[in-house]
Amino acid sequence: MTFLRKSYQTPSYLLLLIFLLSGCSKSNQQSQVDETNSSLKTKPRVGLIMKSLANEFFATMEQGAFAHQAANSEQYELICNGIKDETDLSRQVALVNEMVAANIDAIVIAPADSKALIPCLRRAMQAGVIVINIDNQLDKEVMSQEAIQIPFVGPDNRAGARMVGDYLAEKLNKGDEVAILEGKTTAFNGIQRRTGFSDAAEAAGLKIVSSQSADWETNKANTITLSMLSEYPNLKAIMASNDSMALGAIAAIKSTGRSGEIQVVGFDNISAMKDLIDNGTVLATADQHAADLAVFGIETALKLLDQPESKVQNVQTPVDLIVKAVQ
């Protein structure tokens, strides 16, 4: 009997071994689960929403963003899209909603309107999406009403336009008549550029005889300029709030045989400006570094994704005066 009882008892050292093996097995299983979970983690996905890709400025912005992603492909994925023209607000709202539905991690947006995009961006933030505002600053009062904060990454448009306007003023005389081609009137950057031009004209004693919106578009600028030239025969200069409108103004001036009589300045420094500035057709423009502007926004978004506790704050980017090189 004693023998039989001993044969059915498990020795204590065997119990200890079974316990240790069981613990090791669980530990190995957990390690394998952790490794699997780690391998399933995906890179953050950043969506870039621009305004009209028909505008060279935003095409350059897109190229700069893709180049940055290619050089940092291990850090994030990039999805880019834009609208057909500067006034297609409904499509830009739809792009925001589509990116939220696609579970994008961050949206970097150059809004076509400083107010109209805010409600859909609020909903995106409520869905957990990081939102960064570039190029055209969103309206602070409307954001306050919506109880949100969205950092703006971009230049001081008023200061940039003032810089261009001051350079123009050096070539004119006090009392000379000038006109402004404004951008979209509901776009904060358009308002700021018009204000910067006005600041420069007022400081120099120039007379602003007309200030009209051409909605950032070349054809509209051409039509409005033709009307200005007819109504104000003593016009000495046109300050265009972007280079696309400057091109429209130049075409109008040429068609009326007044090339060389009227100075033109712009804003954005698209590639067409180089030759026009070199040959004196355009006096000056402002460079807000289109190829880098979205990159600044993307890098801000990646920082907030990596450090969600970081304080939301604006980032001012450079803007430079571009004139003919001194020979």
What does this structure look like?
- The protein contains twelve helices and twelve strands.
- With 327 residues, the chain is an alpha/beta fold.
- The strands form three sheets. It has a six-stranded parallel beta sheet with strand order 2-1-3-4-5-11, with helices on both faces. Strands 7-6-8-9 form a four-stranded parallel beta sheet, sandwiched between helices.
- β8, α10 (243-255) and β9 form a beta-alpha-beta unit.
- α3 (56-71) crosses α12, α7 (157-169) runs parallel beside α8 (188-204) and α9 (218-231) packs across α10.
- The longest helix has 29 residues, at 12-40.
- The radius of gyration is 29 Å and the shape is elongated.
- The model is unreliable at 1-40 (pLDDT under 50).
What is the CATH superfamily classification of the largest domain?
Answer: Response regulator
Please tally the helical runs, counting DSSP H or I stretches of 4 or more residues: 12
SSE order: HHEHEHEHEHEHEHEHEHEHEHEE
Name the beta content range. 15-25%
**For this structure, what is the CATH class of the largest domain?**
Alpha Beta
- Shape-level CATH architecture of the largest domain: 3-Layer(aba) Sandwich
Give the end-to-end Cα distance, rounded to a whole number of Å: 115 Å
Average of the residue pLDDT scores: 89
Helix content: 40-55%
- Count of structural domains: 2
- Give, in spatial order, the strands making up the sheet with the most strands: 2-1-3-4-5-11
Main beta sheet: strand number and arrangement? 6 strands, parallel
* Overall 3D form: elongated
The secondary-structure class comes to alpha/beta
The whole-angstrom Rg is: 29 Å
> What low-confidence regions span 5 or more consecutive residues with pLDDT below 50?
1-40
Named CATH topology of the largest domain:
Rossmann fold
Q: How many E-type strands?
A: 12
